[in-house]
């Protein structure tokens, strides 16, 4: 199974950690898309660098919060809302975290 977590606020860090960890332990593929304020969680040093998940940073949010490739978690990559739409179609389950 493929799980997509879409995170908007940094206050959902524990939820992201718990859901992604449980899904990874169960053998599922996890992708986490960070947008809006949650993009700050990807600023290096990042509290999400150790997650067993693909970490995607919304480019528009990254620009707003001055997050660049140079100051972002090494295992995260820039993404877009267009890719988010693709991810919504490709994943089996999607969870939106405020």
3D architecture notes:
The structure is a single chain. This protein is an alpha/beta fold and 98 residues long. Helix content is 30%, strand content 27%. A five-stranded parallel β-sheet has the order 4-3-2-1-5. Helix 2 links the parallel strand 3 and strand 4 (76-79).
CATH topology category name:
Hypothetical Protein Ychn, Chain: A
- CATH architectural name: 3-Layer(aba) Sandwich
Average residue-wise pLDDT: 95
CATH class: Alpha Beta
Q: Which structural class best describes the helix and strand composition?
A: alpha/beta
Q: What's the gist of this structure?
A:
By secondary structure, this protein is an alpha/beta fold. The chain has three helices and five strands, in the order E-H-E-E-H-E-H-E. It has a single domain, classed as Hypothetical Protein Ychn, Chain: A (3-Layer(aba) Sandwich), CATH 3.40.1260.10.
Question: What attributes characterize this protein structure?
Answer:
five-stranded parallel beta sheet, 98 residues, globular
Protein topology:
Elements: E1 2-7, H1 13-25, E2 29-34, E3 54-58, H2 59-64, E4 76-79, H3 81-90, E5 93-97
Parallel strand pairs: 1-2, 1-5, 2-3, 3-4
